Amino acid sequence: MSFLFLFLLSSALLLHSSSPYNTSFHIDCGGLSPSTDPYNISWSADHFFTGGSTAVVSEPLHFHLQHEKTLRYFPLSSGKKNCYVIPLPPGRYYIRTFTVYDNYDGKSHPPSFDASVEGTLVFSWRSPWPETLARDGAYSDLFAFVKDGQLDFCFYSIATDPPIIASLEVLQIDPLSYHSAGLGDNYILVNYGRLSPGSSQWGPGFTSDPDAFGRSWQSDSDYRAGNSKSARIITTKEKITRTEQAPNYFPMKLYQSAVTSEGGLEYELTVDAKLDYLVWFHFAEIDSTVKKAGVRVFDVLVNDKNVSRVDIFKEVGSFAAYDLNYMEKNLSNSALNVKLLPVAGAPLICGLENYAMVPADLATVPEQAVAMKALKDSLHVPDRMGWNGDPCAPTDWDAWEGVTCHTNKDGTGLVITQIELGSQGLKGYISEQISLLSNLISLNLSTNSLDGTLPIGLGQISLARLDLSNNQFSGSIPESLTSSNLQLVRLNNNLLEGRVPEELYSVGVHGGTIDLSGNKGLCGVPPLPDCPLFWEHGRLSKGGKIAIGLSCFLFVAVLLLVIYIFCVRRGRHDYDFGLPSDLICKYIISEVQFLSFASA
Question: Which residues cross the membrane (predicted)?
């Protein structure tokens, strides 16, 4: 499935007009320094990427803009999954990419790869590309909500092909645009056609004509079908009212040109089946000879379903914008047909937009995503493993290497159930955030170079298999492990010490497997040595502390008894040959004070 609408061109300019919202990024992917294009748009040097390398197209002179000449590619050494991670305030965004191959690597093999936005698959590229596409490149765009404070725009390699991108733009737009109040924020609108009948390509990226959202509009001539190919073009320089208004901010220029045909108009748009599509129609009565309602009336049909009867003058008068939208659900074929059939006069249209409504994919539940990113940092997971973006999404892709995910019980998110990272050359420690992985069944970090203590949070009730063997973990075995349902425990060949919880060792008694060998400091259960009476986990045990406390108490009690005998009773019956009783008392009292201070 290819959720993709391509703008093919030999050269293009990229620009947006001033927007009601301030947040925007223009990233020259592969660019090493900032630049400003002929339309005074500032492009930043490449940043926010998780990996990859830079390259230059094979024919730089074929492209007129700097950001079309460079690209970033992601070889397998950077992992199967790589991303641009851009900090953004929560809201809705217009996102546009420019993708070009132009044989930058000299292999004459355009790559196969997927791209996702916020964990949802949106674009698919498959080799071989059409020759003009590979050489000239393509712009693709969409509207998406960002809810968590950062945009994850990710790429996934198919086979061994390195994904590529030449530029990435992100512009904040009105959150209520394109009927989001009715549709909700769980859809991504992918552009499958944004047409401006009666005009050539224009808007940001092609002309100086502004569009507050950064949208570019292309000619409809290649999409008109049947007798519509010879439709008459109407243009005007008159001001069109009801334009540039919230929440969609459709530009005035869109309504200053139109096509009309006595026999009706027809458009054929290529789409992907089994998706819902949101179709927007734009009208304005710009023919000054139409002065009353009923003169121009026509029906709008989508795939032969009559969706509306339109009388522009009746709705808004002349030289005023009028829009309507329609949702085509569960399209069963690869073409969307639009017809404007006359009722009175000749149908007229100023603009046509078609968006695939891609449902937002399930994402890793937030607290587990946090835990996995903490583990990535603490374990020093190498770039080659591709631990970038959402650990589990998109569901069309494999999860992070070594990670297994499942849908949670209520079907609202994805959870981590297994982590298999044995013999991966990891160097670091286990983050305490692992306690947030409440659905973890199996954890294997064996045969690495991990150290530090075992986190107290490692003991989820769900945990059944734990293999941390052949590392350099130190300290004691946490009591929390006894609360899990472990069936396999391998902690052998580490530097662990102290008493082994009896409940943990009972795993072997009840038919499970446990191996604690190779830890010279462990004690307490056979075949391990007995633990010292007053020594536990490398320090004085609780029993030892109690014993010492009782010993000190008894010793002080004996001394007090001696004081009584020598200082009280003996003081009354001093002998001539003995030491004076007051000296003996002072000496004993000073010793008691010293012992009391020492025990304190």
Answer: 546-567
Tokens coding 167: 């530029």
Rounded CA-CA distance 312/479 in Å is 75
Q: Would strands 167-173 and 81-87 be described as parallel, antiparallel, or unpaired?
A: unpaired
Taking the C-alpha atoms of residue 70 and residue 479, their distance in angstroms, rounded to an integer, is 55
The CA-atom distances, in angstroms, between 162 and each of 24, 51, 74, 79 are: 27, 12, 5, 10
Spatial distance between the Cα atoms of 318 and 240, rounded to a whole number of angstroms: 9
Whole-prediction pTM: 0.85
Q: For 415-462, write each residue's pLDDT tens digit.
A: 999 999 999 999 999 999 999 999 999 999 999 999 999 999 898 899
Handedness of CA 365, 367, 373, 379 (dihedral sign): negative
Burial level of 567, CB count in 10 A (0-12/13-18/19+)? Answer: middle
With beta carbons less than 8 A apart as the criterion, state whether 481 and 461 touch: no
Side chain identity at residue 235, one-letter code? T
| Residues 318 and 290: beta-carbon distance below 8 Å | yes
Look at residues 351, 357, 295 and name the one whose alpha carbon lies nearest to residue 324: 351
> How do residues 328-387 score in pLDDT, each as one tens digit?
998 888 899 999 999 999 999 999 999 999 999 999 999 999 999 999 999 999 999 999
| DSSP-assigned letters across all residues of 146-169 | E-SSEEEEEEEESTTPPPEESEEE
